[in-house]
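COURSE: Structural Biology Practicum
ASSIGNMENT: Worksheet 4, Part C
STUDENT ID: 0417
INSTRUCTIONS: Below are two proteins. For each, the amino acid sequence is given first, followed by its structure token string. Answer the questions at the end about the second protein only.

PROTEIN I
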Amino acid sequence: MNTKLHAVADPKGGSLSLFRTAGQVSDYNGAAALLAELPEAQWMLGDHGYDEEWCRDALQAKGITPCTPVRKLRIMPVKYNKRRYRSRSRIKIICGRLKDLRRIASRYDRCPTVFFSAIALAATVILGSGPINRIPLAARMLFRLGDSRSVGLSEFWLSEEQFKRLRPLLPDNVRGVARVNDRRVISGIIHVVRSGGRWVDAPACYCAIKTLYNRFVRWAAKGIWQEIFVTLAAAGGPPAEVLVDSTHMKAHRSAGGGKGGRLARRS
């Protein structure tokens, strides 16, 4: 159940592409799927895990120059730009900031779609993708409700500028009762993902607990969180350099196994 996250980022610190594999999959196998996700760039910066002849040939066929250190077992060494390679540390920072969120550092969700949706939402808002990367975060601010109840400084709230970028990407085909305030609900979902706590322990300042959970799970099943991430990531344009790396995420015991009982149940 352990998961490995493969990430593609730009030098400014914004994530461009994400995909997941099993935890035991090596970077060599992940590189095969990575080539199709790379945007048009001049350089690709990766560690020695991407030092393969077929990978170098595929990158050069796409017009991308690889900048990766060579493995110790390579007979014929290949030179690379060490000064340019120093900027690869930024994708290490991206992976570290993602794993600062407890619900991502430890996988609590059994469903892979729900877990990957949490990663996409965190990469969109916490890190920033494309143009949203230049919006200042309002992760710690005092928010006062209409009934004079104040919320602590540890709550997460989307700023007006952030929500302005997200609003056109939210679904508008609502039938029946109108949705609860989207900014309030999305802020509550991000708070749960960041804290790693149970949904039932979410602060009452956001909205009903059932609303938070249903909104996150239903939009994850429809792929809305991933569509938002892909749209914002593509809005920034192709960068001159792309950084690639992978990180390992251990699964919590609550994410292991499946539901017991018979496969065929009475309706």
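PROTEIN II
(use this one for the questions)
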Amino acid sequence: MMGAAVLAGCGGGESPDPFTAATPGISASDRSDFVGGETRLLSPGAGARIPLRYQIPDGDRESFEMEIVLGVTAGMGANHTFVESPPIDFEVSMGPVHHRPDGRYRYEMKVRHVGLDLPEGTPPELAEALSTEIAQMGRIEGWLEVDDRGITRDVRGSRPTGVPPRTQTMLGNIRSALQSIPFPEEPVGIGARWQVERTVDLHTHDVDQVVTYELVDLTGTRGQLRITVEQTAEAQPLHNLPGGAQARLDAYVGRGNGEAVFDLTSMTPLVGLTFQSAMHATTANGTSELTMETHSSVTVRPR
């Protein structure tokens, strides 16, 4: 999906970045896991082959709805707890589009609303705690700059700080959803497969991510993709743990799959993804073992 952008200023100069000013509870996002990524064609596909390139109208504005469901099983030693968040609904606006002379696109993005789909009978104190936890997500805004292949070339934005690890996981899902679907340089046909490799910051540790795309249908400017995601991580110190705790990651693996329907003239595809991950860590003194398993789903619907 194409992400957010800010318009260039008059006279060919850039507009001042509105997201660099200090805001309580908000920090500038790390751009390292947004920008670039190595795209490698695995198979060109069959039949007629064409280069996939975005053709977003200048000034275009769009919005989409996103639903995230996250379940976490975490514990130390033999004691484990399972927590599943109720569906969290986001409304996000994107645009206006600015088509730069170098062929790149810039989009503004802002989360307009965040809501919880709480089941009947939810205790008021739990409802209040969950609402407080997700409230800062409604303050996410920024822009992305992408080329006509959907490769992210620059990004600025804001993200909440001081939120629980499971909320950081949801933020990771949001960040992934807001990135464009990248296309290979080469012309492709039905059945084409390509991969995008990058290092992703998961707040507590870095992972190596490989996303594989398969083109299963293409009619005019509309196409359908099958998507698989694989994440692995080497042993490393964990960061940003609650209460300043110290631990070391021993093993991590994540796998996901889903589908996307895109239109080369639109910023927003229809996306459905599920993802599972598992990690094992050891406290700094080596006396306790920590484990965490997550399962999540992300659905994006253009409005």
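ANSWER KEY EXCERPT:
Q1: The chain has two helices and 17 strands.
Q2: The chain has one domain: 10-302.
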